[in-house]
Specification:
2 copies of one chain form a homodimer. In chain A, strand 9 and strand 10 form a beta hairpin. Chain A is of the alpha+beta class. Chain A folds into 2 domains: about 325 residues, 2-Layer Sandwich (BirA Bifunctional Protein, domain 2), CATH 3.30.930.10; about 90 residues, 3-Layer(aba) Sandwich (Rossmann fold). The first copy, chain A, contains 17 helices and 16 strands. In chain A, the strands form 3 sheets. Chain A has an 8-stranded mixed β-sheet. Chains A and B meet through helix 1, strand 1, strand 2, strand 3 and strand 4 of A and helix 1, strand 1, strand 2, strand 3 and strand 4 of B.
Chain lengths: ~450, ~450
């Protein structure tokens, strides 16, 4: 019988789960410090909730669930698996508007499913960690989101990372200034979004193929390259770098797109020096694939890693699709799986995560002694210790060997002599040392390690 | 546009999530104290992994996922949603046998999906909390599982609960002793499993209808009734009650089923007095619906609640269906949704769960002051406090009103005067008191509450 997990999906054994829970715990803790609250939505949504929200390609990748029961026509699907956490959020805000606060700030860490072709590091079931603030158009929201994402990365041990920042309105203004016809803006964005992957020549070729005039394409790419080249000087004074980029944008846009420029300036002004301010870099080439962004856009980059650890932006129209009236919104999504891969490769997990399943193993000496062994285990557990009981009346040597193989640091032995005198022998499997202590003192010895 | 969650499924708003996380946290903590380790499996399984494992009715309730891509015939399903946590565990043990310890003890808290007709308290997406010990036939396993489940309930605040205990082998022996033909044992078990719901007359009628001889049915029901009647005396001396039931069973079985009887006696002998020993009651009428149990069976009952909060038992053959060779296994599943319903109805959640989203809200005084407000927020967060920032330059009164509506206990105000002198005004929204303190002392004031 086939015992593989489904294609592109994974079983998480205990060590995997501990690592995942550690990262999720840091994310949740940081977001809570920013006043975000947890939200969970069902894995399954009505199929109409999802279809048409992710473009043609997205629709194709949605896992569809067969309709059940008598009336169902063969092959009909009425439900589908969650594809991201943003559309369910929009549905929840529309559905529960009256119960939610004016400024609803939620984080959500749950799996999503996409019928993509599985590849190294790309799975069909994977977790997203989304944080979104609903209800305000103020740039405080953008500044706080960037700050929170930065805090998550810092707490996880990422020393150098970049929070790339751009604005859809500014980008549109640049395209106009470059003479790209309005009808080609979408095509140009798709091409520009590949700058990281295919380089300036690749993008230039694609822009040409999509009908963007050569002169405009050249102007755009030259500007982006010169900003990128200045990046290495940015670390010394990030605020000055960002202000310089803003000034160049101002000149290129020549007074157009003043609202978008004002928002970008606001965000930069609000960054806390030493906090997110040390990591945010204006990047006029940043495009982000998704079509629903309406304002600021973000992407998280770390050195020596192609692709991003997450991204997001402002999307003031999406909730309106469900609610009928517009509700401003802005968010960032962290890619848990990529974060885990990078942290694993770079040895960034704390040592104590690979911990033993228990602090101590209680051995069995004789069949008659088993009830007392279970009592000892209960006593130690009531002191908060994690206690494994070897389940079978086995040779002591085999029990010790098993405890060692599980990396359990201590075992207790209660032989006939100990039982008669109310003592317990505690053996340190690392050092081989053992000591006989009164029963009430065992917990203390174990806690001192 | 329809904004409902899918039928039988639920959105969990922040307060719901906090309650769920609290209960799951207690469950995980207790199980870890018993040496159990976390496991997670995909929500989606290959459809063959699930079909045929849950009986005909179970197969009908499995959510099936449409095959994708060019080659797929219309309506074909190749994947399905997880239906329980036991079959995926069996698959994982078979798949990863070489990487797992000899005694693999795992807990798993994840949602499962069943296309049941939704009813009050019955959902199509719900969480199971399973704990299983793989690899040993020793009754230490049963005793530890009962003890762990009891600890969970005690820690959650359930004062009186019963861990009902029986054994499939003993039950079969009883059916034989009652003259139920071997071919009718399955039917008789199904009928007896309804004793709680339909009472002795209902069961008697169903046994008769299924062809069980009246005399045998009468003998069984009389025995079960007399044990049930003795229950109210059990609290005073549970061990004596259990031993008395064992003795009556011994007499009725007249020397048959000695292995099963030995196992039951072992479990009772191993219970820690004052721990699980105070809550386990032998109940010879307990049948459990599922067909895969091979030994001891358990069910958790609390007063004034029809149905159970969980159950389980030994199933020594299920893993063999995937692995080819038998591996002993035993487990208990807690029903998270029912536990939450009961705790909600009985007011058992700690008060601090309905907590505010933040310890303090930082107000905005003027547009120019916003960068400094964000810096103050960053300072307080670095001290571990949860800090909300009111995002917009609004009237102070409206900001205070918003903080109150969110039950945030404190706000900070930095007006022109405070800004000039490096002070911060901290206002307690509960008492109305306010004090002006040096900026470095704000965290201390807030922590003292």
């Amino acid at each position: 019988m086939n015992t593989n997990p489904a294609r592109g999906m994974r079983d998480f054994l205990p060590e995997d789960v501990r690592r995942r829970q550690y990262v999720i715990g840091v994310i949740a803790d940081v977001y809570q410090r920013y006043g975000f609250e947890p939200l969970e939505t069902p894995a399954v949504e009505n199929i109409e909730t999802l279809l048409g929200k992710y473009g043609e390609e997205g629709d194709r990748l949605i896992f569809k669930i067969l309709k059940r029961g008598e009336g169902a026509e063969a092959g009909q699907a009425d439900l589908a698996l969650r594809y991201d956490l943003t559309v369910p959020l929009a549905r929840v805000v529309a559905e529960h508007r009256a119960r939610l606060p004016k400024f609803f700030k939620r984080y959500q860490v749950q799996p999503v499913w996409r019928a993509d072709r599985p590849q190294k590091g790309r799975f069909r079931e994977f977790y997203q960690c989304d944080v979104d603030a609903i209800g305000s158009r103020a740039m405080v929201v953008e500044a706080e989101l960037l700050s929170a994402a930065g805090d998550v990365l810092s707490r996880l041990g990422f020393a150098s990372y970049t929070l790339r920042l751009n604005h859809r309105g500014v980008l549109s203004g640049l395209l106009e200034a470059a003479g790209v016809p309005a009808g080609l803006h979408g095509d140009a964005l798709v091409a520009l979004d590949k700058l990281d992957k295919v380089g300036p020549e690749g993008v230039a070729a694609e822009l040409r193929q999509r009908g963007v005039p050569d002169a405009g394409a050249g102007m755009l790419l030259e500007f982006f390259s010169s900003v990128a080249a200045a990046q290495h000087t940015a670390a010394a004074d990030p605020a000055a770098f960002n202000r310089a980029v803003l000034d160049r944008l101002e000149t290129l846009l020549a007074g157009t797109r003043s609202e978008a420029m004002g928002e970008l300036r606001d965000i930069v002004r609000l960054l806390v020096p030493g906090g997110a301010g040390a990591h945010v870099r204006l990047d006029p080439s940043l495009a982000r694939g998704l079509s629903y962004y309406t304002g600021a856009i973000f992407e998280i980059a770390v050195p020596d890693l192609a692709g991003s650890l997450g991204g997001g932006g402002r999307y003031d129209n999406l909730i309106g699709m469900f609610l009928g009236s517009e509700v401003p919104a802005c968010g960032i999504s962290l890619g848990l799986e990529r974060i885990l891969v990078v942290m694993g490769e770079r040895g960034m997990f704390p040592d104590n995560l690979a911990k033993a399943p228990a602090d101590v193993m209680v051995t069995q000496w004789s069949v008659d002694g088993v009830p007392d062994a279970l009592r000892l285990a209960a006593e130690l557990r009531s002191e908060g210790l994690r206690v494994e009981v070897y389940p079978e009346a086995d040779k002591l040597g085999r029990q010790l060997k098993y405890a060692s193989s599980r990396a359990i640091p201590f075992v207790t032995v209660v032989g006939d002599e100990e039982a008669a005198t109310g003592m317990v022998t505690v053996k340190n499997l690392g050092t081989g040392e053992q000591q006989r202590v009164p029963r009430a003192g065992v917990g203390g010895v174990l806690r001192r390690g």
